[in-house]
What we know:
The protein is 53% helix and 4% strand. The protein has two helices and two strands, in the order ααββ. It has helices at 10-18, 20-61, and strands at 87-88, 94-95. A two-stranded antiparallel sheet has the order 1-2. A hairpin with a 5-residue loop joins β1 and β2 (94-95). The chain starts with 9 loop residues before the first helix and ends with a strand.
Amino acid sequence: MVNPGRLPSPAEIRNEFLGEVASRARYLKREEAAVEAARINLKKTLVQQRRMRGLKTANDEHGGSSGIPSQWHDAFLIQANSRPAELRHANGYRLT
């Protein structure tokens, strides 16, 4: 008998017709599907991260792509016509 004020849920109806064992089996299948989906997602993420890490390593070996130059040019080259100068303090004292 079904109370019209409180209709059974689909899970309760399924349990009445198929039994609790079938209901548990269906629940386990859903859980296994969720775990498998998580496993696939994790595997995909790991592949992407490894690919990115591989690209980063390859770029570092070939000059890098970070925007920072791998070789710095010396901006303080000494010109051939330059001469040494004395170092002096702001007050005019000679520094030795």
